[in-house]
Amino acid sequence: MDLGLRGRRAIVTGGTRGIGRAIASLLAAEGCDVAICARNHASIDDAVAALAQHGVKAMGDAVDVADLAAQRRWIDAAAGGLGGLDVFVANVSALAQGMDEESWRRGFEIDVMGTVFGIEAALPHLEKSDAGSIVVVGSTALAEVYAPRRSYASIKAALVPYVKGLARNLAPQNIRANMVSPGNVFFAGGVWDIVRQQNPEGFAGMLARNPTGRMGTPEEVANAVVFLASPRASFITGTNLIVDGALTQRVQF
Fold first, then answer.
1. Is 194 exposed, middle or buried (0-12, 13-18, 19+ CB in 10 A)?
2. What whole-number distance in Å separates Cα of residue 49 and Cα of residue 239?
């Protein structure tokens, strides 16, 4: 299926590893020019080189999205370098799990403020597109409590009404806004790989909770994100798509 992304321009925050890298790679494979950011400059160079192999324009820079001014400057520069902007994917997360003040603060600064003001910086560029699209990467943690108290779940949940509000307010400008919330996703060096090594029993217990008997892959999440970002999903906006292999038990109406 042609997703209609060839020649489109996309920005992906946190695009050098895991889900973000898979999203950027699939966008590039669909013919989309892509700009990515991350905090580690060395990882950016490697990712950009890989993206460019798809024959598209690829750009990247080291940016901490918690530095809102720096993120705003980068988004403006990236949109300028790409020649415009059609897709903005907010993927960065602090993955803060603790209940201490620092975990709450870091989660809020990166997951909420970084996402909200990254989108706000992208909007003037998206408004010039004939098919603007925003996708925020969330988590099933926002939908179901299945672990000890964690700041992460509440922080992610705060983004749901924000994305729905964007969808309602931006629809007249032909800009869509959606969220994709993955369940447990495994990749080398990722959170669940670390759990597997440091807490094998905990890892096995979480694995057993999923009826599929496995965790997801970054590519499976990217498939959902890129579809929602594409013109093929032109009448889908304001949704939170759960990608979890039936891990969560809630009923979604």
1. exposed
2. 33
Please tell me the distance from the alpha carbon of residue 140 to that of residue 143, in angstroms, as a whole number: 5
Q: Could you give the C-alpha distances from 96 to 111, 169, 216, in angstroms and in order?
A: 9, 30, 21
Q: What is the pLDDT of residue 149?
A: 60
Q: 84-121: per-residue pLDDT in tens?
A: 999 999 999 988 888 999 999 999 999 999 999 999 99
152 annotated active-site: yes
Identify the H or E element spanning 32.
none
Could you please report the per-residue DSSP string of 74-112? HHHHHHHHHTS-SEEEE---------SHHHHHHHIIIII
Catalytic residue among 88, 108, 152, 186: 152
Reported pTM: 0.96
Sorted by where each starts, the structural domains of the chain and their CATH numbers stand as 9-187+216-243 (3.40.50.720)
Tokens (6 digits) for 252:
């979604």
Helix 200-209 crosses helix 191-198 at what angle (to 10 degrees)?
130
